Structure to design on (155 residues):
């Protein structure tokens, strides 16, 4: 039993991923480069436009300490909205991430995405149900959650 307890304690400290991950959130990130993924035609049929999302995102950021930049070395605020339309209903996946492309540790020569923050939603509704406004409201809500997280991480 004593060996099992020591074994458990050892692996708890080695693989305590949550404890290690909490140090990387949004601390020190004050500028982001905005990228909104291009939409397909289904988005227009569901009353969702890239301009509406850009306006919503920029408005929320204008009232925060997060500034927009066009510097490619700054972390990326990546907004992805995927819309599926079957003619009568719209299904929407929306995602907000703050990420960067960086070299892998230990000089391995690899590069990859490092995600500082991620938040996403799934919505569904009829074409005439106001799904476009609902999705915009959810993106605004996610952006506000990002601003709050940024504030908490940079106290």
């Amino acid at each position: 039993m004593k060996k099992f307890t020591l074994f458990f304690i050892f692996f708890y400290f080695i693989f305590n991923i949550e404890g290690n991950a909490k140090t990387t959130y949004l601390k020190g990130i004050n500028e982001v480069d905005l990228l909104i993924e291009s939409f397909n035609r289904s988005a227009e049929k569901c009353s969702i436009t890239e301009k509406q999302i850009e306006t919503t995102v920029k408005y929320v950021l204008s009232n925060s300490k997060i500034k927009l930049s066009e510097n490619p070395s700054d972390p990326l605020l990546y907004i992805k909205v995927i819309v599926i339309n079957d003619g009568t209903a719209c299904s929407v996946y929306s995602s907000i991430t703050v990420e960067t492309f960086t070299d892998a540790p230990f000089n391995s020569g690899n590069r990859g995405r490092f995600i500082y923050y991620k938040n996403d939603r799934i919505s569904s509704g009829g074409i005439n149900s106001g799904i476009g406004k609902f999705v915009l409201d959810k993106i605004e809500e996610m952006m506000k959650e990002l601003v709050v997280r940024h504030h908490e991480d940079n106290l």
